[in-house]
Amino acid sequence: MGLFKIINKGDGLKRLFIGGVHGKEGLTTIKALESISDDDVQDGCLVVYNCDESKYISTLNPLYYESETGLEVLDLISYYKPDMYIELHCYKSENFQTLTDLSRKKKLGVPPLIELEKGVLIGSVSPLIRTKIFDKENICITLEIPCQPSDESLEVYKDFLKVLAGAKSRADLENKASKIYPEQVETSQRYAWEIFGDYPPF
Ligand SMILES: [Zn+2]
Question: Is residue 156 part of a domain?
Answer without folding.
Answer: yes
